[in-house]
Amino acid sequence: MIKMDYEIIVVGAGHAGCEASLASARKNHKTLLITGNINNIADMPCNPSIGGPAKGIIVREIDALGGEMGKNADKSTLQIKLLNTKKGPAVQALRAQIDKVIYPKEMVKTIKNTTNLDVAEAMVEHLIVEDNKIKGVILDDGRKIYTKALILTTGTYLKGTVLVGSNKKSSGPHGEKPSKSLSDDLKKIGFNILRLKTGTPPRIDKNTIDYSKLNVENGDTKVHTFSHDNNVYYDIDKQVPCYLLYTNSNTHKIIKDNLNKSSMYGGYVEGIGPRYCPSIEDKVVRFSDKERHQLFIEPESMDLSSNDYGDTVYLQGFSTSMPYDIQEKMVNSLKGLEKAKILKYAYAIEYDAIDSKQLKQTLETKIVENLYTAGQINGTSGYEEAAAQGLMAGVNAALKLENKKPLILKRNEAYIGVLIDDLITKGVKDPYRMLTSRAEYRLLLRNDNADIRLRKYGYDIGLIDEKKYQIFKEKENNISKLYKFLKENRINPTKENNLYLKKINTSLLKDSITLYDLLKRPEITMKEIEYFYKIPYDDEIKEYVEINVRYEGYIKKANRDAEKMLQLENKLIPTDIDYQKIPNIASEAREKLELVRPTSLGQASRISGVNPADISILMVYLKRNEEHV
Amino acid sequence: MNDTIAAISTALGVGAISIVRMSGKNAISIANKVFTGCDLTKVKSHTIHYGKIIDKNQVIDEVLISIMLSPKTYTKEDIVEINCHGGISTTNKVLEILLLNGARLAERGEFTKRAFLNGRIDLTQSEAVMDLIESKTNKERDLAINNIEGKLSKLIEEYRNDLRDLISNIEVNIDYPEYQDIEVMTISKIKKILMGQIKQLQKLIEESENKEIIKTGIKTVIIGRPNVGKSSVLNSFLEYDKAIVTSIEGTTRDIVEGNIYLDGIPLNIIDTAGIRKTNDIVEKIGVEKSLSLIEEADLILVILNNNEKLTKADIEILEKTKNKTSIVVINKNDLSSQIEQEKIKDRVVVSTNTTSLKGIDSLKEKIKEMFNLDKIETKDYTYLTNSRQISLAKLALKSLEKAKLSANNNTPIDMIEIDIKEAFDYLGQIIGIDYSDEIIDNLFKNFCVGK
Q1: Are B133 and A616 within 8 A, CB to CB?
Q2: For B77-170, where are the E strands, in sequence order?
Q3: CA A300 to CA A79: how far, in whole Å?
Q4: What DSSP designation does A32 have?
Q5: CA B167, CA B165: separation in Å to the nearest integer?
């Protein structure tokens, strides 16, 4: 049932839209979620997995703040792994294979059970903007709905065009109608529009594959969950496997022989595709010396009754925009897939996005008040990146209506902070994916400490309830107790103790040593400490303390570096600053500063093309102006 | 502005004393770490103290150190000024030690900038500050361009690219762990690369420090038996360029008698005159000293008297110097020649007459010719840039060594990489590159990953 006015309207019910509308409704704002097709809420149109390096940590952060993605992924896990366990604590992250039927089903259930949240099936074609302020939307049937704040999470639907070979068709990923006039509206209002492209590989009939020729990839034998609630829904012994396979010279020959038939190489694509998600054509052309490329078969769903996903598996690494017949030849050239049938062909999709430099830190647009954007419309790619922005846009739209201070996460606090700061400061050229290397303080942004970093914010904004917060406080309390325990208890240089230390190849004791200092030795982990003392705490507490003790030096250094950054971050630039009036600033820097209009010297210093000397000049100028006032 | 900055605040090699200045809240504690003489954290403000600058138990220089406590200072911060006596390379070394102990190299004009930001200078002067900063950027830009074409910069860029490739490889392993076809950077592989890098960088630093004549000057030893006119040759040099020459008291290392500039290149003249006028034991020490000076010298001037036949001592000196870069200076050419010419026929010979100022000109021309000085554009190698580059290279080396140590301890790769990245950043600072997305760009360029 649609009412005629709302406090917050969210346009689009993908991963960004779901988080945005849930956050808004849970913060007691009358919220409407508009979707073009009610069956596509929280759909996963591309890969059937959530998480991965950096992305998995984003999901943990969303959960710590009170978002839904982590819980929902836990409910639909088919297989889960902790990645990078051998590469160190800072870069470990969870990745789960997700059941594409259960995930949306569970999300819809949650949305339906949320008070204050209405769902409508409609296409939004126009925005109602008065005095640079959002007032509402006009649907394709002409109805007008009014709102105080609007969040656009349109995904690939802004002028979406699906490409297969030379075939080009206005459409969303499932053949739905795209939104045609919305992006023109945005352009008229003053947004710079970018054309981006992404692609997806073919889906194969899972009953036509000879699995005996493929290598099995199983999940971890240890239980994991994204959510800090730690509810386990999957059966660890019945995790669904993935399979590893490779392209071969025959595959490459088929691709090379038919290159001109692909949308990309045939010149049919205008949009800029993501560098990290090249099509198989791209891989074969750009890395022509490689004899084979790695591919994965990933399960899409165990629900055999589903028409969309029940019979299919996803061929990761094989995205292409070749015509159907060539796709079939390519697939059948793979070992084990000689007789495989394609149930859904690969395609490329182009869509419009806005220039994310036109956004504030809250994801509110700079030109239209109370208009927010999140997800692919901001030039990002990935379910996790979208959900994170949706959550932040929903929270900040609500906080603004409540006249409260916005929630802005800093680069040393969360990957979500890095994501939004990158978007608004640097903008994007190709679809933006989060990578661990984008975070300069990644040692601080770990999988194990997402709640320590963010749960308090979640509680303060009202998305984490009292009960959950108390559980978290208890965890914090236990952490301090364990620190104290390690500092207060000692190991003496007895013969027996030294015998054990010798066994594990660490230097012997002459004097007694605290457990804390012993844990600092490279050869010692909590496990070795437990030879001497029983540590009566949960694994997650032990893990957190172990990392913080063993890598104390590195963590301190990261904190010092972050401190330096924050000093510049705290030097605010007045919103009405006139960069034309500052003498001596290089003209390139002036242009960039004018465009981004950074809120702090810290943000200004991260704009490419703004040099340290320009920052010095700006600093001196600000100081002088301060004194004038 | 919470960090502590340091720079050499006297001009290029002019004057006997160079001042290294430090400003910031850690200025005094940093100075105290490297100074022996008294506890600088306990002295009164605006006082001067005598002592030594020490690095790893080695005395670098005897100095006078001025302590000025905030707020009655130029920058309104704690300021330490170190008056160094040991010439260019020593002053450089003192600055480096401060940088390695926590100070940051000041940008040009930064002391003045701080003075302004801390309210020490009034508003009317702020335009001048801006101009100063601006002029710095232009100069640095010129310098950067000059240096980028230079051999050193090319080398640094190569080293940095190697590190960039290493980091990208580590990153791709982290961000795409499922790609088993990509080379996995194991700790032992990283160690091997680090060892190579450390060796390269050590060599570069060593060469920059020891063989860079622009920075250290040409170490010139004047040798000859008594009364052949050594002193008059030295005095002619000194006379010639009185305005920029100062006699410097000997330091712990050398008996530098004076510096003169030939086309902007310092000639550090070391006279061995001290040998002759003492008793036998000291004379013996003196001879050993002069022999060791011959070994270390970049250039040896062997002085002979035109008017006398070669003595046994002369021949011994000629013998000792025959395989070194040397010039045989035949002094007193206004008098009749008694020297047996065939004994010096294989040597570079210049004949002079030090009774007039012009008499030394031919010697100077010869030195310029030998060291190719006309071809060196001194403006490319300013003193500050050089000391800065070396300091940064040393910091990079320190980071790499730390990374190697961590690798030896089997520290996880994500921690080791922190130090490698730091080294990468320092090398970038040397050649003025600071491009934050470089690693990511490189990653996607070199590795085939993605769905």
Answers
A1: yes
A2: 79-84, 104-105
A3: 11
A4: E
A5: 5
CA gap A444, A451 in Å, rounded: 12
Q: What contacts B152, CB < 8 A, 6 or more positions away?
A: B204, B208, B389
Distances (CA, A) of B189 to A90, A221, A524, B157, B195: 21, 29, 24, 22, 10
Whole-structure pTM value: 0.79
Question: Is B448 in Cβ contact with A290 (below 8 Å)?
Answer: yes
A541 touches A479 (CB < 8 A): yes
Please name the residue that has the structure tokens 């073009």.
A36
The segment(s) of chain B belonging to CATH 3.30.1360.120 are 5-117
Tell me which residue has tokens 């920059």: B208
Contact A99, A450 (CB under 8 A): no
A85-129 per-position pLDDT tens digit: 989 898 999 999 999 999 999 999 999 999 999 999 999 999 999
Task: Answer whether B448 sits within 8 Å of A276, measured CB to CB.
Answer: no
pLDDT in tens, B252-281: 233 445 666 665 566 777 766 434 444 555
Q: What are the distances in angstroms from CA A471 to CA A51, A229, A445, B135?
A: 25, 10, 21, 59
Residue type, B175: D
Tens digit of each residue's pLDDT (9 = 90 or more) over A165-187: 888 888 877 777 888 899 999 99
For residue B151, the model assigns a pLDDT of 58
Q: How far apart are CA A365 and CA A371, in angstroms?
A: 6
Q: What DSSP assignment string belongs to A127-186?
A: EEEETTEEEEEEETTS-EEEEEEEEE--TT-BT-EEEETTEEEE--TTSPPPB-SHHHHH
Radius of gyration of chain B (CA): 26
Query: How is residue B377 written in tokens?
Result: 């554009």
Which residues in B lie closer than 8 A to residue A617 (C-beta atoms)? Answer: 130, 133-134
Domain B151-211+388-432 top-level CATH class: mainly alpha
Any residues with CB less than 8 A from the CB of B355 and at least 6 apart, and which?
B232, B334
Residues in chain B: 451
ipTM exceeding cut-off 0.85 for this assembly: yes
The whole-angstrom distance between A235's CA and the closest CA on chain B is: 23
Distance from CA of B177 to the nearest CA of A (A): 7
Confidence bin at A401 (pLDDT 50/70/90): very high
pLDDT in tens, B383-403: 334 566 777 888 899 999 999
CB contact under 8 A, A620 and B130: yes
Q: Which of A274-288, A460-474, B117-131, B399-413 has the lowest mean pLDDT?
A: B117-131
Q: Please, are residues A352 and A431 in contact by the beta-carbon 8 Å criterion?
A: no
Please report, as a single letter, which amino acid is at residue A11.
V
So what's the architecture of B215-375 in CATH?
3-Layer(aba) Sandwich (3.40)
State whether A296 and B175 contact (CB < 8 Å).
no
List B residues 301-320 in contact with A (Cβ-Cβ < 8 A).
Answer: none
Neighbours of A248 (CB within 10 A): 14
In this complex, which of B175, B409, B450 lies closest to A277 when CB atoms are compared?
Answer: B450
What lies within 8 Å, CB to CB, of B354 at 6+ separation is B229, B232, B233, B235, B236, B331, B332, B360
Residues of each domain in chain B carrying CATH 3.40.50.300 = 215-375
Q: Helix B187-210 vs helix B413-430: angle between axes, to the nearest 10 degrees?
A: 30
User: What is d(CA B385, CA B144) in angstroms, rounded to the nearest whole number?
Assistant: 10
- What gap in Å lies between CA A282 and CA A256, rounded to an integer? 10
Q: Which residue has the tokens 């978290």?
A: A472
Domain over B5-117 is classified CATH 3.30.1360.120: yes
User: For residue B236, which of B222, B248, B224 has the smallest C-alpha distance?
Assistant: B222
CA–CA distance, B47 with B30 (Å, rounded to integer):
17
